[in-house]
Amino acid sequence: MLTSAAQNVAPSDGRRADDRQPVDRPSTFRDQHGAPQNVTVEDLSRLGCKIAGEFAVQPNSQVTIGLPGVGVAQARVVRIVPGAIGVEFLHPLSPTDLDTAFRQSPVHALQAQIMVANAGDVHVHEDRWPGAARIGVIAGGSVLLWGAIIATVRGLF
Fold first, then answer.
1. Cβ(107)–Cβ(66) under 8 Å?
2. What whole-number distance in Å separates Cα of residue 20 and Cα of residue 48?
3. pLDDT of the chain, 157 residues: tens digit per residue
4. Which of 25, 45, 48, 140 could form a disulfide with 20 if both were Cys (CB 3.0 to 4.6 A apart)?
């Protein structure tokens, strides 16, 4: 049975309520507006994680973080420090999920399909057929076009 993360409070001597495991793996973070952002999960526990990156969030904001091998975890921001945030999962991870996280299905970083060239020109990367296929299409089209032209000329005379 899942319990609320709020029920698992840290001991009064300042220790964490649950041990964190170092992870240092890429992931995808989404803020309360759903905007995706590449981040690094630095450490992970059943109750939450530390995420490195630049964030525009407030304490208690609802966010999501991708946990490869587990799925998307809903969380709330509990700590903000320069270059990182700490989040508490709304539903703690099971021991199995904690063992599985970041061991399967790696997250692929978001990648822009735009390459910037000199003088500020922007070129969109497009998938193209191989050179031999493009030449074949051009040559075949030319043969058909010349065939149509010859048939038309013969029909006129």
1. yes
2. 8
3. 333 333 333 444 444 567 888 999 999 999 988 889 999 999 999 999 999 999 989 999 999 999 988 889 999 999 999 999 999 999 999 998 888 888 864 555 545 444 444 445 555 555 677 888 889 899 999 999 999 999 898 888 7
4. 45
Euclidean distance between the first and the last CA atom of the chain, given in angstroms as a whole number? 89
Q: What CA–CA distance (Å, rounded) separates 35 from 37?
A: 7
Does the pTM exceed 0.70? no
In the block, residue with structure tokens 């509990």: 78
Paired tokens of 35: 């905007």
Strands 84-89, 48-52: pairing is antiparallel
Ramachandran sector of residue 40 (left: φ over 0; alpha: ψ -120 to 50; beta: rest): beta
